[in-house]
Amino acid sequence: MKEGCPVYIRDVNGETTAQFCRLANSVLGTQYPPESFEAAPRGHHLLYICKVAVVHGEVVGGIRAHSVADGSSSIVPSAMYIDMLAVSPVWQHQGIGSILLEQVELLCRECYVHVLQLHTPVNNTAAIRWYVDRHSFVEGDVVPDFYLSTPMEAGRLSRDAVLLSRVME
Ligand SMILES: CC(C)(COP(=O)(O)OP(=O)(O)OC[C@H]1O[C@@H](n2cnc3c(N)ncnc32)[C@H](O)[C@@H]1OP(=O)(O)O)[C@@H](O)C(=O)NCCC(=O)NCCS
User: Fold this and answer.
1) Where is the N-acetyltransferase domain (predicted)?
2) pTM for this structure?
3) Contact indicator for 140, 163 with CB cutoff of 8 Å
4) Ligand 1 centre and the CA of 140: distance in Å?
């Protein structure tokens, strides 16, 4: 971590929601509207987490995840699904992404959820390697046109996504 720059992990709130939205859109090349980052999704899921990493009052990273159920239990979700993880380029490679991921892992452990899942574009090679090599995720099926309805910067990231999963020990 950069010397003298403490990183605080906070629940997203009114003030930081817009910053997280801008950061995610610029890092991922998406154009999600700020409304999609507001509290609404919370009510739709048994478990929901949205945390940001803050340095000197500025959001430098964030993660958002929600539970998914496969119908086998109405009490314990079958997995947590990470639908957003982004760290500002100047703050990458300093452990912030891993700290944010740990927040989701902690919630999983507290709530007896043993599987983490996410999709990422098939050509997002650096992120795929990060999840697989550093965080023990396993590559699964490719979903063609997964991001068809996602407003994305043309050409940079593929619309096809790969499923990454990890069974927690
Ligand atoms: C993928 C992503 C979230 C990783 O975030 P990050 O903060 O850079 O991740 P970390 O710092 O925890 O780990 C990255 C590297 O830094 C190194 N690192 C970890 N802690 C460190 C520290 N304290 N000091 C120096 N280096 C450190 C790790 O060894 C790791 O190396 P490696 O992955 O090259 O082997 C980030 O690159 C990102 O936002 N990418 C673009 C968006 C994206 O693709 N999101 C995910 C798909 S939805």
Assistant:
1) 7-169
2) 0.92
3) yes
4) 21
